[in-house]
Design goal:
This protein is of the alpha+beta class and 261 residues long. It contains 7 helices and 8 strands. It has one domain: Electron Transport, Fmn-binding Protein, Chain A (Pnp Oxidase, Chain A, Roll). This is Flavin-nucleotide-binding protein.
Length: 261
């Protein structure tokens, strides 16, 4: 049996409230990051007059350029896709040695948990937070590798179905940010409602209030042709992506509604 690697518990990443839902397993945390279409990336401004941290929606994926075959249970970097003149990229350039301190957050909602009282309502969810230092990817081979990996993380196989590689202008305007992960943690809720004894002993509530879970999952719709392309038939890689994604998301949400995963 292979060993399960975990992020070390320190003050910054340790989950205290309902810590039985916490996870520090690399594989689980990295999976949540990879399964979330939009990550939220936060960092502090270098301007002492600006008291507010910045939070950006970005596309990202876990990977290792040095060890491309590394699986999710191994230490990985987080590659983020951005525009060359964006604020975060400018700030990274001002921290070339230490890198920019960055927090990455991801959340998936899998169901609405309906309880006897509003105070006990909840979500079934998967969430993860990573802490690390971001630097720009200057090596062209690594940059191209990361761009392909990020593209295929959105729609598997899409890179080879398009005009590639990007030309010089596209490579110049696109910036890849590599975040060296220092630590992380995750939190997951599955199962049905958890009502308090004072409510479950009230027969009037039990007979009047519906309790349970409304499963929720992200659905990929039928591709709609448009733009300059003349291909009307939906390619097989898109059909497979739609069918596989919907099947996996629905199965997880429905399973999470009735049992601990």
């Amino acid at each position: 049996m292979g060993r399960t690697l975990v992020y070390p518990k320190v003050q910054k990443n340790t989950i205290h409230r309902k810590d039985f839902r916490a996870t520090y397993d690399l594989s689980t945390i990295h999976s949540i990051i990879n399964d979330t279409p939009v990550l939220h990336v936060s960092f502090n401004s270098l301007d002492p007059k600006d008291p507010f941290p910045t939070i950006l929606p970005m596309i990202g994926i876990m990977g290792s350029f040095a060890f491309p075959s590394a699986d999710l249970n191994e230490p990985l970097d987080c590659y983020l896709h951005g525009y060359v003149s964006s604020g975060i990229m400018k700030q990274v350039r001002e921290n070339p040695e230490s890198g920019l301190a960055i927090t990455i957050a991801a959340t998936r909602v899998d169901g609405i948990v309906l309880s006897l009282t509003p105070n006990s309502h909840s979500y079934n969810y998967r969430s993860a937070v990573l802490f690390g230092y971001g630097s720009l990817v200057d090596d062209m081979q690594e940059k191209l590798w990361a761009m392909e990996m990020i593209t295929n993380s959105v729609v598997p196989g899409r890179w080879d179905q398009t005009r590639t590689p990007p030309d010089k202008a596209e490579m110049a305007s696109t910036t890849i940010l590599k975040v060296k992960i220092v630590n992380g943690s995750g939190k997951i809720r599955t199962g049905g409602p958890g009502d308090e004894k004072k409510d479950t002993e009230r027969e009037d509530l039990l007979r009047r209030v519906f309790t349970g879970v409304v499963p929720m999952w992200e659905t990929v719709g039928e591709p709609v042709a448009g733009g300059a392309g003349r291909v009307e038939q939906v390619p097989e890689h898109l059909r497979a992506f739609r069918d596989d994604t919907n099947k996996v998301n629905e199965k997880y949400a429905k399973t999470a509604a009735v049992e601990k995963i």
